[in-house]
Write a structure and sequence with these properties.
The protein is of the alpha/beta class. The chain contains eight helices and seven strands, in the order ααβααβααββαββαβ.
Length: 224
Amino acid sequence: MSPSHLATSILDLLFPRLCINCQKEGGYLCPDCFSLLEISDIHQKHPGKNLNDVYFALPYKGLLIKKLVRAFKYPPFIKELAQTLSEIIIAHFQMSSNVENFKKYIVVPVPLEKKRMKWRGFNQAEEIARHLANYFKLSLLLSVLVKTNPTIPQVNLSSKKREENLRGVFSIKNAQLIQGKNILLVDDVYTTGSTMEECGRVLHQAGAKKIIGIAVARAIPGED
């Protein structure tokens, strides 16, 4: 056993992982509670102004999915929930029959600005994107789409205010890496779409060919 695996095993022994829903030992979401999630088995095409389509695994309603996302994004910041949330997305793809072939895509996470990154310690979209890139056997690009300016939290803003809040905050580096490419743009929760749409706009301007958004859940304003 490698030193890192040994350290993980010791931590699991001292601080066992408990299901967020039922407190059963073994993981942050046990199989029984995973089965309670309302994961969709169909995909309805959802194009936007700058997105060719968006995939959502389930609606952002119900206590369980909200518990998972909030524990991931807010204190206590359970980074390992990225795997659980990725498995929810993957279950949606496995259950749906009308899923596009992503063989020739690259994976790009919605970026986080530096202050927020320092507070949380990780970019939640990036952690989910890592698991999805591994599942689909695709390249993960972290050096292209960046957030250069801070924004106020989107939660209590209207659709129009969200768009204004995000205008001009994303930029592109190393544009040659995405020119003519198809992109899977990954985030955790999709609400009005303003974040993904603005990311899609700058990616298209930099030469990206096709952009499809992927999120764990879709919320209505006020739920996120």
